[in-house]
Amino acid sequence: MADGGKVVYYAAPRPAASWPHQVGVLPREADHFQDRAVVQQLEQAMAQGSTVVLCQVLAGMGGVGKTQLAAHRARQAWAGGGVDLLVWVNASTRAAVVSAYAQAAGDILGADPKDSEHAARAFLAWLEPKRSEPRCRWMVVLDDVAAPADLRELWPPASRQGRTLITTRCRDAALIGSGRSLVPVGLFTPDEATTYLNTALAAHGRLDTPTELAALADDLGHLPLALSQAAAYVIDADLDCATYRALLSDRAQTLAELLPDADGLPDDQPVTVAAAWALSMDRADRLAPVGLARPMLELTAALDANGIPASVLVSPPALAYLTEHSGCGAARDGVYSITPQDALRILRVLHRLSLIDHNPRSLDRAVRVHQLIQRVTREALTSQQHDRLARAAADAVTSAWPDMEGDAVFAQVLRANAEALTAHAEDALYQADGVHDVLFHAGRSLGQAGQVQAAIDHFQHLASTAHGRLGPDHPDTLNARHNVAWGRGVAGYSAAAVAAFSELRADVERMRGPDHPDALCARYDLAHWQGTAGDTEGALAAFVRLLADRKRVLGPDHPDTLHTRCAVARWRGEAGDAAAAVADFARLLTDMERVLGPDHHSTLAIRHNVGSWTGRAGDPAGAATALAQTAALRERVLGADHPSSLFTRHCCAHWRAVAGDTDAAAAAFTQLLASQEGALGPDHPHTLVTRLDLAACRGVAGDVSGAVTAFAHLLAHQERVLGRDHAHTLYTHHCLAHWSGVAGDPAAAVAAFARLLADRERVLGPDHPDTVYTRECHAQWHGVVGDTAAAAELVQTLVDGETALGPHRHRIRNTPYDFYTWGATWPFHRPEQVRPPTDATSEPGRRKPS
């Protein structure tokens, strides 16, 4: 038809669609579709008449099965006659949404699909509820919406006649509004993942044990897409799960090499696992702050998938890495063009696009990321880039690590991040200039947490590796050996610590000379463990000689010199002159206040020692008063939950008990236990020692059977956490044996002391004072049960041992015990190894193993 010289073409009228009618093609249902809890949640939400946005709650990335869940729900509604019109839209772009709406308008309204914008608006208008027209039940599924902006003015209307279902990787607030509810879609549960693998493999005659299936599911992070593609690979390659898992753990092979290529994907899947997040990553890099998404994701890929502290990712080393890899140039004068605020903004971008999970309210585990996203991200780097990333991540963790760990949870999270980093990039942490500090931090943290054997194992591995890569005389090799020796002593193997430090001292003096600070430090530790092993006079003499050398080399006010004075005072008291120890500590306190100030942590530790040795000098009430004052000072300076503050409270309660006020002591121990469990955790050695003292208070107060039960539970806990041979474990065994006899079962006491004596002879040696003490108790309980022959034999052993003990024979008691009287006070006077140390960690100012 002509119009003003123009020819206008009109589309021929199209017949109205008959009902029911479908627009678009649903993805075929996956083989072995896994029913899961979110299916029921989705059905409930749909039944409420609201628009539903399918999104992810934890890992938040492609591959969790959002499309399959939407297709399953749509297929159910269609097959069950629940809808008259079903529209499936591949909604990855705005243009695709408009095109699909236009097609629906053409089918239903006869609209011209060439004018897609007009047709799309006509379709949305038709979906609006109308009173005058017959009811048409409809469902619109918008699959894989890339950005909320793509749906601007294209949202299907809220209608009781219709349902809208959306899948997306975004978590923007714009997706949630009036009439819309969020249905999070996460990973398979462990049971769902194992069931899926079992079903998929069994369909091809492949049978694996439930244990191997569960392990493979864990290796793949319970990600549905990865599980389906891994099952296809295993079937095609004719592998069993154990063999496939071994291939997965081999870092020489990439994930892409261990999953089907694009031609072999199951269930008509459009992308491989490795490519599943590429579009999200590209979009994230285009969002402000531009260019930071990829390097930030790389940093998270180098660390612990289960939780990365925010302080690590906004630390100066992290900002330096972001600056270097974002094209913003290098830092100038320590100032980075990327700020902490920029780092936090890009974390939110990655969260919005479901590449990470960012919880800004969590300081310890602010960022979580799926392990396969981590692996794909790392495997995209060259070897040189990977090593640079590993060292930058290690620098970031080290920067966030506090010198004194007051938060047990935060320390555990940092250790987990160091462990994850080591697992996939250990080689990068050993360079020609030495071992990265993060490995030493991780080992020391294990020791501070009371995981002594784990710390020993960690440093033993570090020492062996450093020996092989850096040589036996490298400072870091010697440093690691130092930590191994110290850990052996802490674990109760004092003689082994003495032997190890003797060898270390000789090596350090050979390489650096006798006056080098490291040589003096080795002498310090050798003397310390010499005294701990029982030779108190020998330790005192060694410290007196060391003090003279440190004054000569370092000067009288050097921290190491002051620290050595602390050791001299302590071991003078241990050798039997507690009054002299109090006087020495008092003079040292005056000098510490002058040199370091009254609030310095080392000064406060000396103040603590003055109080503790006041008690050991015979004034427990005065000790309790002095320690209460020190506890208040430490809480003001360090905080109430700091380990040193908690330790001073412990010692204050201890001396209250010794002074006879067991009710006040029990109340103080109860309050302290709650604080320690919250701040340090239930497995920390200080927490366990408080449980021991609380059990002793119970026995002293008359609840003897309750004390026995408490000691038995504590012993089982310590054997699990600390090990059977730890000094604290052995002491609890001693307490349990004693209180079992006090409770009226002397035969049980005899049997328990026999087992303990064998353990102490094996661990400490037959002549150690604590071994002798146990032998004495064993003899006396033999006497209580009437076995005088056995008691006499043990007593003769004690008499013969006086010569072997030499200067320590004063530890032997030569008179019979009144167990029921003496037992009321002795649990508060412990053998030296488990008496509360002179400070919460060690004497202040001593050069700690590093």
Can you describe this structure?
The protein has 850 residues and is mostly helical. Helices cover 59% and strands 5% of the residues. α27 (643-658) packs parallel to α29 (685-700). The radius of gyration is 35 Å and the shape is elongated. The chain starts with a strand and ends in a 28-residue tail after the last helix.
Report the sheet with the most strands, covering strand number, pairing sense and barrel closure.
Answer: 6 strands, parallel
Choose one word for the global shape.
elongated
Helix content: 55-70%
Structural class: mainly alpha
> Assembly type of the shown chains?
single chain
CATH homology group of the domain at 10-184: P-loop containing nucleotide triphosphate hydrolases
CATH class of the domain at 10-184: Alpha Beta
Ranges with pLDDT <50 over ≥5 residues? Answer: 1-14, 52-60, 801-850
Query: How many distinct helices?
Result: 35
Number of strands: 12
Q: Whole-Å distance between the termini?
A: 92 Å
- The third-level CATH topology of the domain at 10-184 is Rossmann fold
Topology summary:
Blueprint (H helix, E strand, L loop, with lengths): L1 E2 L2 E2 L13 E3 L13 H11 L3 E5 L10 H14 L5 E6 L3 H16 L6 H12 L10 E8 L16 E7 L11 E5 L5 H13 L7 H10 L4 H14 L3 H9 L28 H9 L6 H9 L8 H4 L2 H10 L14 H13 L4 E2 L8 E2 L2 H9 L3 H18 L7 H18 L4 E2 L2 E2 L1 H12 L3 H19 L4 H16 L3 H19 L4 H16 L3 H19 L4 H16 L3 H18 L5 H16 L3 H19 L4 H16 L3 H18 L5 H16 L3 H18 L5 H16 L3 H19 L4 H16 L3 H18 L13 H4 L28
Parallel strand pairs: 3-5, 4-7, 4-8, 5-6, 6-7
Antiparallel strand pairs: 1-2, 9-10, 11-12
Helix pairs in contact: 3-4, 5-6, 5-7, 6-8, 10-14, 12-15, 15-16, 16-17, 17-18, 18-19, 19-20, 20-21, 21-22, 22-23, 23-24, 24-25, 25-26, 25-27, 26-27, 27-28, 27-29, 28-29, 29-30, 29-31, 30-31, 31-32, 32-33, 33-34
